[in-house]
Design goal:
Length: 219
Amino acid sequence: MQALHGVSLAVAEGEIATVLGANGAGKTTTLRAVSNTVRRDGVVRFDGRVLSRHGPEAVANLGIAHVPEGRGTFAELTVWENLRLGAYSRRGSVKSDFERVLTYFPWIDDRRNQQAGTLSGGEQQMLALARAFMQRPRLLLLDEPSLGLAPVLVTEIFRIIRELNEQEGLTVLVVEQNAHIALQVAQTAFVLEVGRVVLSGPSADLQAHESVRRSYLGY
C-alpha cells in the first residue's frame, strides 16, 4: 500500500527537525524513504546528491545513520561488538571514536563486555544511538527514541541528542510521538496526517498553533 502522498520536507545542515503525527501517519515510512529501505518514487537529495539510485548500504556510506524504532541492537553481541558494527563500513582504528562515544555515554565503558540483550530498555536505546554515532554520520535519522521509556530516560536521551547536535554539528531528523519534548529540542517541525505534510515551520510556531496544541500537546 502507498503510505506517503507527495511528502516534501527539507532539513537544514546542523539543525534538529522533528516529524510529528499519529500512528499510521507515515512517519516511519518517511525515514525509511530517506535511508532507501522501502520502495519509493520521487527524489531524495542529500547534500545536493540524488539518492534515488543508492541502496541502503550506499546511503549509509554517504553519512546517513538510521536508528529504527525498537532500537535494533544485536542482543546476543556485547556492547563493544555492537559499537564496532556501527563502524563496520569505515577503515582504520575506531579507538578515537570509542573515546568520543564515552564522552556522551560514560556508562558504556563499564558495560563494554556485557551482552546488549541484558541492558535495560533505556540503555539499549542509548547503545543504538551510540552505535549510529560510531558511523560518523552527517545526518542521523531517529525513529521514536522515547518509545517505552520512563520520562527521566526520555529527557536524558534528548539531552544527548541536543549535545551531539551542538557539539558535533550533527544534523538530526527525529520521528517522535512525544510532541512536548520533540518541539522543545527541534528547530523545525513537520506534522504528517495520512501520509501528507499538513503543517510545517519553526517549532516555536507549531507549539503555538491551535490544532497542534489540541492534537499533540493536550491543551
